[in-house]
Amino acid sequence: HWGAPLLESRLTLIRDGALFYRGHPTAELLDRASFEDVVGLLWTGRLEPGLASVVPRLPLLHERVADSLDRMPVLERFQLVLSAKAAEDVSGFDLTAAGVRRVGTKILRMLGALTVGSTPTDLPLARMLRAGWAPRDPDAHALLDAALILWADHELNVSTFTVRCVVSARATPYAAVLAGLSALSGGLHGGATEQVEALFDEVERPHQARPVLEARLRRGERIPGLGHSLYPDGDPRSRLLLDRLAARRRETPADAIAQAIHRECAELIEQAPNIDFATVALRRALGLPAGSAVAIFALARTAGWIAHALEQYESGRLIRPRARYIGPLPD
After folding, report:
1. What CA–CA distance (Å, rounded) separates 259 from 239?
2. 276 is catalytic
3. Are 270 and 114 in contact (CB under 8 A)?
4. Taking phi first (over 0 means left), then psi (-120 to 50 degrees means alpha), and beta for anything else, what does residue 177 get?
5. Best label site of 32, 67, 263, 324, fewest CB within 10 Å?
6. Active-site hit among 154, 235, 276, 308
7. Contact, 136 vs 283, CB < 8 A?
8. What's the chain's Rg over C-alpha atoms?
9. Tens-binned pLDDT, residue by residue, of the chain (331 aa)
10. CA-to-CA separations, 145 to 78, 121, 155, 204, 261, in angstroms, rounded
């Protein structure tokens, strides 16, 4: 049920098919701001780098399980190490705005390092990802930065609302991000990105796009990565990211497959791709590792979760909706 419950927020506006962070159109932010600037905008209201100078250390548990982490799905990897860090880091209990921003910085830099198998640094996140994933690709930094900006927040989606509920109980930012990751892992949220990956796996050549899509439709299956309930005329985030991908100096076989799926979907069911589709197309065009599309989603959205946590801590209110009872009435 859209809009129930309804919470006040100064962070994100979705209106007339466009997305705004604190009144700034995301389309304009892509041209004049970095992801770190957008973090500052969301966390403080100022369009300037928002991460603290702190560089965290990975928890002791990481040294014991490092060999097995690479074999774990990325969200589970995040949750395991973040839980261990939460147990070690008493600063998580500092719920002042400065304390939450400091812990939020630790979380973002730690998850970024886990994503590419490095140690945490104070490098901008897109630069860290490019160094670990595509060090020889000159286009990668700008495209990764754009994807992070576009994924950073999206109002009260299920993971963000979960985060706000946890924060309203005065739990730590670590607990809040863990709760957000749990919600994100569901098939109707972050799992949607993995469903798009499965679709792309089926289409091995551009000419196979139409028969693959037709077979799915005949089986009564939905086509993942298309449409969005909040954007009847198409997800603007997808358009922005796909336009930047198309503007590169070269085209890869993965680009051709993405374009074929996009074209055939428009003809068969008249639906435009959403940001899940665009991020998978980006992942494959840059040759990034499997699982990196959902990692980009989780990393970027962590910044939004911390922004909502800051708002919720400031409000001091416990989120406690009522249930409308529809069971048998007492005698």
Report:
1. 12
2. yes
3. no
4. alpha
5. 324
6. 276
7. no
8. 20
9. 455 578 899 999 999 999 999 999 999 999 999 999 999 999 999 999 999 999 999 998 887 787 788 788 999 999 999 999 999 999 999 999 999 999 999 999 999 999 999 999 999 999 999 999 999 998 899 999 999 999 999 999 999 999 999 999 999 999 999 999 999 999 989 999 999 999 999 999 999 999 999 999 999 999 999 999 999 999 999 999 999 999 986 788 999 999 999 999 999 998 999 999 999 999 999 999 999 999 999 999 999 999 999 999 999 999 988 888 999 999 8
10. 20, 17, 20, 28, 25
What one-letter code names the amino acid at 290?
A
Instruction: Supply 79's token pair.
Output: 């949750």
Q: Tokens 């000419």 identify what position?
A: 207
Measured CA distances, 209 to 226, 228, 320 (Å): 15, 21, 47
**Whole-angstrom Cα distance, residue 310 to residue 121?**
24
Determine how many CB atoms are found less than 10 A away from the CB of residue 215.
11
Q: Coil, strand or helix: which one is 35?
A: helix
Question: Catalytic pick from 62, 154, 189, 228?
Answer: 228
Is 228 assigned a catalytic role? yes
The alpha helices in 58-139, defined as continuous H runs, are 60-69, 74-88, 97-116, 125-133
What is the Cα–Cα distance from 183 to 78, expressed in whole angstroms? 13
The answer to whether 280 and 193 have CB atoms below 8 angstroms apart is: yes
